[in-house]
Amino acid sequence: MDELFAQFLIEGRELIAKATEDLIALDEDVAARGRVDSAFRAVHTLKGSVAIFDLAPMGVALHAAEDLLGNVRSSDVPIDEPAARALLGCLDQCDRWMDAVEASGKLPLEAPREAVRIATGLLALTGSPQAAAAASETDEQWVKELLDRQSARLVEARETAAPLVAVRYSPPTDGFFTGDDPMNLIGAVPQLVALEVGAARPWPPIDEFDPYQCNLRIELISAASEAEVRQIFRFIPDQIEIISVAPAGADGDSEPIAGLDAHRTIRVESSEIDRLLDLVGELVVTKNGLAHIAASAEAGADAKAIVAAIRATQAMTDRVVADMHRAVMDVRMVPLERVFRRLHRLVRELAQRLDRDLAFEIIGEGTRVDKAVADALFEPLLHLVRNAVDHGIEPPEARVAAGKSARGCLELSARTLGEQILIEIHDDGAGIDPARVKKVAGKRHIASAEQLDAMDDRATLQLIFAPGFSTVTTITDVSGRGVGMDAVKTAIERLGGRVSLSSAVGAGTNVSLRLPATAALTTILIVKVADERFGIPLDMVVETVRIARSGILPVGLGRAFVLRDKTLPLIELSALLGLTTRKPPQNIRILVVDSGRGQIGIAVDDFSERLDVMLRPMSGLLARIPGVSGTTLLGDGGVLLILNLAEIIG
């Protein structure tokens, strides 16, 4: 059951995202009838999945949403704003319920009341006040009245301290035509203590009586567990109310489903598993080859033959391990679609709240990245998108006054660049004024007046990433709390990526995120500094060069060198790490790295080999060591520190 439930959590989120996307698309084009059909199918499928599990309140809300979408499908009238808002609200609540179920295995205690509120609002929009009124009758008063009427029958059950479960079953009026058999269901309820069958609505006059319309309301009490009772009614959760009335001291809550973590679950094609199995077979063959070589060496085989055999086995091992690495990475790769879709509705609601008219376009949502990267991307992307809508896109009247279209454009794109992915958030809004950035930076003491005067526009824009920087003076629920672009930068760098920003006043802003497509293996360059070895992520290194000591020139308080007619600043890695290095040789070894604000040179004592390593994050007391991304084990058993150059350089 755990595996089935984990699969439900994955598919449920996808169905909610799909229905949300369809409803938002209808806001752009109300005539897109295919979107109504698609949203209806997603909600219908989700409702069916919910019925399998103990999530009756969620089923009630989805059933009402399905009814409303069904009405829209059967009419020629486009979906209106109140209906779209109510449906999106229902999906949003279902998304929150999915989070709660994932965390605890069950819905929150207030879920039934919230489901009724949602269903009442949705049913009222279907034009069926009778249905809405029926949905609103969920007061637990009926339980108290039922217990009072059946008090005599309950004495024996209470004396044995048996848990009691009260059920109100309201079959639909057309239930006889859908294959429902209410009395057969009631007969299947275990340990039935009391049963009452009455009319759901007042009986009509005899000449208006329709024997094919179901007008039953069934109330019962069972001494079985709540889980057993819910199992009987699991396919009709929208037609029942189940309330535990266990004796005092008993806990009627169902146990959470343990061991579930949907975020750590990946759907994998069987062909990919078969590929991994084949590679494991090849690895076993290679391992057996090593045993054969060891036996030959013990038997006194020629040393040259042994070395040749070891080299051949190593080459085979390298190939198999590389193929296995690619296969595992393919298994871990997921499309960015799930992350991007969640942003669509948030942009729509934020635009409405801030009175912005904008078109939100997503490009490249099929781009595949490591699942760990995808899971960590939502928060920084959310902040960037909110920034673009709040600070970037102007109100319609301001855009018209500036000679622009009243409707702004916000574009979120993703594409693959070799071993990396590039995600860009571009808006055609007001852009960022460097003069204003300098003014705010000076006021907040982010940089000194002398430093600000020496900065060009490109360097000034990077001040936006400073902790606490904000141009907003009024705190709202959207902006002004001082948790800004520095949080985005920190999150992206934690993933091994980099953030860059460009902007033009009046023309808009573009934020670029470069991230590794995979997060399991990292290619590093080993360098030596003061007789110590360190690892540098290779994606930070543009090139390595050797410069004669005479080519290093003093510039102000620092030093610089010329590389292909371009002057680059030079920093000693030993000085950054607080190490004492030996006298520099005649030719100084330099790493040319991209700091995000331009290229700089990092002087080291020596270069060593390149390695693909498993990066292990720092933990425990070492977790807060600055300038270190993690560690890895070397072939000789030594531990190598992997430096975070972006943090060290500052």
Would you write up a description of this structure?
The protein is 44% helix and 22% strand. Helix 1 runs antiparallel to helix 4 (81-104), helix 3 runs antiparallel to helix 4 and helix 4 (81-104) runs antiparallel to helix 5 (111-125). The chain is α+β, with helices and mostly antiparallel strands. A hairpin with a 2-residue loop joins strand 12 and strand 13. The strands form five sheets. It has a six-stranded mixed β-sheet with strand order 20-12-13-23-22-21. Strands 14-18-19-17-16-15 form a six-stranded mixed β-sheet. A five-stranded mixed β-sheet has the order 6-8-9-11-10, covered by helices on one side. The radius of gyration is 33 Å and the shape is globular. Mean pLDDT is 80; it is low at 129-139, 248-263 and 474-483.
Could you give the count of β-strands? 23
Q: How many H/I helices?
A: 21
Structural class: alpha+beta
What is the CA-based Rg, rounded?
33 Å
- Tell me, rounded to a whole number, the average pLDDT: 80
Query: Which bin fits the share of residues in helices?
Result: 40-55%
Q: Let me know the largest β-sheet.
A: 6 strands, mixed
Strand content: 15-25%
Instruction: Report the span from N to C terminus.
Output: 50 Å
The neighbouring-strand order within the major sheet is: 20-12-13-23-22-21
Quick recap:
With 650 residues, this protein is α+β, with helices and mostly antiparallel strands. The protein is built from 21 helices and 23 strands. Helix 1 crosses helix 13 and helix 13 packs parallel to helix 14 (371-392).
